[in-house]
Amino acid sequence: MAYGLARRELRPRVPLRHGEGDKYRLTSIEGLAALSLDALSSVAYGPEAIVLVLVAAGTGALTATLPVTLVIAALLAVLVVSYGQVIAVHPDGGGAYAVAKKDLGPTVSLLAAASLVVDYVLTVTVSLAAGAASLASAFPSLGSHLLTICLIGLALLTAVNLRGVAESARVLMLPTALFVVSILGIVVLGLLRGHPVAVVGTAHPVHATEALGVLLLLKAFSSGCSALTGVEAIANGVPSFRDPRVKRAQRTELMLGALLGLMLIGMALLIRRDQVAPRGGVTVLAQLTAGAYGTGWPYYATNLIVTLALALAANTSFGGLPVLMSLLARDHRLPHFFGLRAERPVYRWGVVALALLAAVLLIAVDADTHRMIPLFAIGVFIGFSISQIGLVRHWAGERPRGWLRRATLNGIGAVLTVVAGIVLLATKFLEGAWVVVVTIPLLMLLFSRIQRYYTEAGRELGLGETPPPLSVADSLVIVPVSQVSRLTRHGLQAALALGHEVVAVAVYADPAKALALRESWDRWNPGVRLDVIDSPQRSLVEPIVEYVRRAAEGGRQIAVLIPEVEPLHRRYQILQNQRGLLLATVLRARTDVVVCVVPYRLSV
């Protein structure tokens, strides 16, 4: 054994804090629950979006549901493979943002970041609103409380995610499994039965208003692509997985694609066979549920499971957006505190910011799903397109083995997502998509302004430069006091440790009280000079600020040390005099002196 080298097992180990280590990260199954429920639950509204478009050409046009769904499933396969490549190339997460930053330049990366932020916030709001609406369909008395239900669900999800992604994944595993089993049960039983067991909802007369042409098919395709939302979340949340995190994340992405594709195609087969058209008071999924299970307890249980899954689908954003915001903070495009992690592996500032943005949007639209759906997929398709185009450029630049095949696959995906995004934007612009068109550039401007501030601040602070040598300057420590007490002694004792000259300053409007303080000071004789300032206007802050300004003339180093009482219990804080904190705030705003607040801790 070589001298100076200890065996690995003998080296001292730093104990891990709570939340550190693989124990608190995601396995593949937990990742499927924590980051994929948004994409999986989209089968509740994706096929219905296709039906709502095609039925404009009459019930006969519903036969086109299957071919449109097959194209969407093909696009899903391309996206799953592409995001598997994104995971390998960018294991630190970030998805489309990481791809754009590396391969497409700063402007496109800002576009990717803004679109992802919009997508994640809308994922939360649409999922919660859809879940509340589904619950109200089963229990009509809740119809007037949709916003309250959404806000309660948002608060619960926020609380769970503040405890950590792994904990939230374990909470979501059972609802995810129940949802997948319920939907696959609908598909299997529905296909085994020759016809629907039961029909629910109120029939509406269907009048053909359009011809089944290329434009209508494109509209159906772009609307149905809302079922693809959330596919990118796993690539954005790679750091949340256990090691080997790349393989685990890729495995999770493949499981997501297989389950989602199977459910979409199965539901499309049932819609085509049974000519399922929109009916009043129920969703298309509810009609398929009744056709497979009947109207007994399995029907109500499945509706409740779907409601729960839609509500919990918002958890995808809580797993992805805080990681994205931490990457933006690392790149100086968001405030740096978004990159801070708590003792658990949680970016809590990102979780709180997402919850606040979602709450504001829910209140603004009164939890109306239909007002948010037009906004939903625009940001998704921007991210999809940027990821595909960025990977094409990546393969063309790196040229590894098999790069042409990979670039071709990504190029096909880019064409499909760009076409779907353009059609969706053109058809939904006046229905609310214009909000996204305005919001994304504003977010890009915000990110760039924050980055410019950090750049200019770093230049002014001389970050990365060698500063000039230190110079020793004469210093003075000023301690504001009001009377002779243990608090005054505590402050002066701390001041004497900071500088070689200390002066106590008191402000009085009453000459008699000023004289009494002077006499008490002389009797105590602490060895520190006392200056008493006369203030006929009974102002405390302004006289001290002026005193500090005069003392700082000539470049002398000044420190102001403010003793402040701190009670044992926070409920007594409001009972304390807040003048010290007010003085500290004004001094920081109006002077360049060092301001210190020294707590004197009470036992009550």
UniProtKB/TrEMBL annotation:
Protein topology in the membrane: Multi-pass membrane protein
A Pfam family recorded for this sequence: AA_permease_2
Organism ancestry: Bacteria, Bacillati, Actinomycetota, Actinomycetes, Kitasatosporales
Annotated source species: Streptomyces kaempferi
Statement: the UniProt record of this protein carries the keyword Membrane: yes
Ranges annotated as spanning the membrane: 49-81, 110-136, 142-160, 172-192, 254-271, 304-325, 346-365, 371-395, 407-426, 432-450
Cellular localization per UniProt: Membrane
Keywords: Membrane, Transmembrane, Transmembrane helix
Protein name: APC family permease
Main subcellular location: membrane
InterPro entries linked: AA/rel_permease1, APC_K+_Transporter
